[in-house]
């Protein structure tokens, strides 16, 4: 069974179809990238899968169950987490507290136990804190745990967002341009982190404009153009597809100095 299956998905904004009749399957495991020119519908697709937007029509199934139109909190509880293109960090909170915000699904939420501060609740809180600290270690931010988030360099903030998204223990992690604005060293750190998460069994869907990163890490690539599927396959197949080179990779390569 596929982990995520999208069938004839369409989202219209007035007379504009940002996503139109899009179908694809994401199997469990591995790194799956979605690329395309600006305006291709990538972020709209993420917003549909994570419940930020409702589809105009079409189906989205997660582990065989229909999820189209469910609110983000219910999707998070089912095992879908994401980051956003623009940083969504609580800059007035500590680094550790930012990760703990993402851990709310793992807490014991029984109202009576919360009011009485029963041992089970205290045990749950200690476990969540240990898990958050382990995530900071995993993303290379353990030494910053008590520092205010606004003291972190930009690349570290990107890794903090990934740690917070992972705090919900997702099966499917959607990352919207995790390397955007990062320098080469920061991008390499993110690449190493993503590889490690996949090795741990997390299925990642990546939207990214850094083609070097995409080609380095992707097991499977979907190329969108004007909200429709342009091509699909492994990195080598996509790299050598003439339609992709013409519509996207050639343009990106000329702009960024990267070879298609």
What does this structure look like?
This protein is of the alpha/beta class and 260 residues long. The chain folds into two domains: 1-79 and 170-260, 3-Layer(aba) Sandwich (Rossmann fold), CATH 3.40.50; 90-169, no CATH class. Mean pLDDT is 89; it is low at 252-260. It is globular and about 55 Å long. The chain has helices at residues 42-49, 72-78, 95-101, 111-116, 119-138, 154-166, 184-199, 211-217, 235-239, 242-256; strands at residues 4-13, 16-26, 31-35, 57-62, 65-66, 80-82, 172-176, 203-207, 220-225, 228-233. Helix 3 (95-101) crosses helix 5, helix 3 runs parallel beside helix 6 (154-166) and helix 5 (119-138) crosses helix 6 (154-166). It has a six-stranded mixed β-sheet, sandwiched between helices. The chain has a four-stranded antiparallel β-sheet with strand order 2-1-4-5, covered by helices on one side.
